[in-house]
Amino acid sequence: MKLSIIVPIYNTELYLTACLNSLTAQTCPDMEILLIDDGSTDGSAQICQEFAGKDKRITYIRQENKGLIGARRTGAEHATGEFLMYVDSDDWIDCGMAEFLVRKIGDADMATTGVHYETGPGMVVEYLDRYPEGEYKGADKECLLKTMLYDTESDSLQRLTPWIWNKLYRTEIVRQVYRNLEADNDFAEDAAFLYNYLIVSGSVRICHKCFYHYRYRTDSMFHGGNPHMLSDINKAYLAVASGFEKHPLRDSLMAQLQRWVSVAAVMAVNGRMGFASEIQIPEFMLDTDGLKGKRIVLYGAGKAGRDYFRQLTKMGYNVVLWVDSNSLETGIVKKPHTILETDYDIILLAVSRPEYVESIKQSLRGIGVGEDKLVWKEPVRAL
Fold first, then answer.
1. How far apart are CA 322 and CA 198, in angstroms?
2. Residue where a domain terminates, one of 171, 199, 222
3. Is 173 helix (H, G, I), strand (E, B) or coil?
4. Which residues, 6+ apart, have CB-to-CB distance to 363 below 8 Å?
5. 209, 112 Cβ separation under 8 angstroms
6. Which residues of the chain have a pLDDT value below 70?
7. Residues 97 and 206 placed together within one structural domain of the fold
8. Same domain, yes or no: 216 and 293
9. For residue 31, which phi and psi values (nearest 5 degrees)?
10. pLDDT tens column, 186-213
11. What is the reported pTM?
12. What is the DSSP secondary structure assignment for residue 269, as one 8-state letter?
């Protein structure tokens, strides 16, 4: 079974060599690597050509800039493998990923793996699909579709990892999806593809082993400001809604999609569009039980942390320090080591995702913080 690995590339020369080294080290016996240069203006083209000249498995394709969806579509059109996978050019993968996925997929239409996800400089967590390992078909696949974007019972968003690059697909289905997907969308390109793929495909194989390494970049589009984000969110909504509307599970799928869009819109207003900090919509409500009279160190300056800080200070709670591992210490948020210089009673972890909690606790224990000082409560979504 032949595998095609597709790498969309646009101005990532600083990271490209590491990415391509990880691909050429793959142990899959029958594979090709398609480098889709989407009009790069840095040194990416030269790096691609050097790798293609040394490895006959590599094909280099350059095109005028069409955006990420356009580059991924080009890769699928040129793929000659029965299966394909995508790798972003600023990330890298462990050497056994390709062979593992090809062995695991069997007669399923998609196989997934876990991700080593870099949330900030020096901070990596393992991100897994929040479903047990195994094959999901028939009634199990239907249950997955009903909970993949938003699970009402657990009040959790995106139980299935929403990324395109930690999964293996059947090439013909990928082509089918991309034929109907508009390229003019700079938000949630992965989700627009993935959810459309899932509703037209058969069974899914869930695997938790982590192979993919996602690199955090402050200069990426995802982490930058975008004044057009609300219109981009609407484009993503329309790209997914058209397929959901025609599906037998329409009511469940549309309800999940609308919940996801409402959260995305709140995130846009609260930090992704460049609005003034005073203009905020709370996404997470703080459970204040047990906090009265305590000297509180607040850990986390993400969306949950910002919501918590505003609520705590507005209600008169005693926040003696606000810290985050990604802080530049140029403002009110400090680095975690300043905890050691502060008198406090508890450290309140403002983290929305449970999978991040243990790694944060471990890092704080590493600097001498006692376990009895650490408090984490599952955030309550205001939406």
1. 41
2. 222
3. helix
4. 123, 325, 336
5. no
6. 186, 218-225, 271-272, 276-280, 329-330, 381-383
7. yes
8. no
9. -155, 160
10. 678 899 999 999 999 999 999 999 999 9
11. 0.76
12. I
